[in-house]
Predict the structure of Amidohydrolase.
Amino acid sequence: MKKIIYSVCLLSAGLLAAQPTAPPADVEAMKAQAQQDLQSRYNEYRQVAQRIWGFAEVGYKETQSSALLQKTLRDNGFTVQAGVADIPTAFVATYGSGKPVIGILAEYDALPGLSQQAGAEKKPVAGIDAGHGCGHNLFGTASVAAGIELKKLMKEGKFKGTVRVYGAPAEEGGSGKVYLVRAGLFKDVDAVLHWHPSNQNRSMMASYIANSSAKFRFHGIASHAAASPQRGRSALDGVEAMNNMVNMMREHVPQETRIHYIITNGGKAPNVVPEFAEVYYYVRHPNRSEVKDAFARVVKAAEGAALGTGTTMDYEIIGGTHELLLNETLARALQLNLEKVGGVTYSPQELAMGKQLQASLGFAAPPVEEAASIQPFAVTDGGGSSDVGDVSFAVPTVGLLAATWIPGTPAHSWQAVACSGQEIGSKGMMVAAKTMTLTAIDLFTNPDLLEKATAEFKQDVGTYVYKPLLGDRKPALNYRD
């Protein structure tokens, strides 16, 4: 609702055009050439994405994935600064100089517990726990591909400026980009492009929601659970009491609030009173202020649980992200380029594979062929969270969704992992690479577009002074341990 109000205000103020003006013919020729260039390197980029899929490295542990993307950029003329913002697997790759400065976000972390082969049946990869259930192997590769194509055009003298690719680890709960923002790495950037794997193709006009996460650790007294239970104080009781209170709290928070948790450690043996237990919480809401309020109440529940069970409690903030600040000016420009690129066309074998995967979902899904279509421009509701939200409060930001998964496939599923490891995913990856490249060309060659996007950004941010929800903590490099 907030974003819609902003858009109405901007339109009435004359800051947003109903549609971006058509680019000149030479820009159109440049865009056509860029698409051809990217497609000519399809096999190279597909192989990069597949290698990262095979690495399946979780947040802040993406050593091989980050190194491969860095090498790909260096080999193509970028200067790479590694280990930025106190994160070993983060990097900034730069080519060019001067204004405008256009950034492209790259992610490459996998999710624990989603090991899966690239087939139509649920079958984990032996010896591997994690999997790319959010398609970040494709995300990072497409962003690198777009950066390399923009560098090529810049070197040919087609336009001037600076292109930066931001290697951003641990999006899945680790809030990697928040540390990049906090370190000031976006201060001189004029606009940022990003994308995300999906089951459809659309300009991203659905805001990610704000999120705070923490691990709550309870400490009790061990004892024999049968012979001398009176001498023990169960840390697991503390966790369960906390969970019960938070679950009762759900009735008394704004209905858009999302609270979820897992017990990461509940003890070691039933006949030993647990002296340590841990629960990992996420608190989400479309507005960061509501997240702060709800999270504070969760902390109070933890404190009360410790008091009532005779245990002690401490907690560690793991992550915290802002909601995504949408930029309609940039999104409409991106929509035109997405329509120019078009969707994904599957081979007969891929269509058959897609139908097999859809049969495993357990619900009716759109036709597999829908991956070839582009969804109309629309403001929709968001659901998940992302540290891209913090970037969007630092610089005008725009993104897209590309169909890397069979239509109907949910993120964070074994079916998504399977698609991300096949040509089904790689074809959607190229839709994203081409669309981001074409939109960046507009930003490099059309100062009016950048000026309008900046005006919208400033009006939307207003007087708000950015402050990260995770505070001043150092990166939680071991949060997946």
Residues 423-445 form the longest helix (23 residues). Residues 107 and 168 are 5 Å apart (CA to CA). The chain has two domains: 2-208+323-461, 210-321. The domain at 210-321 is CATH 3.30.70.360 (Alpha-Beta Plaits).
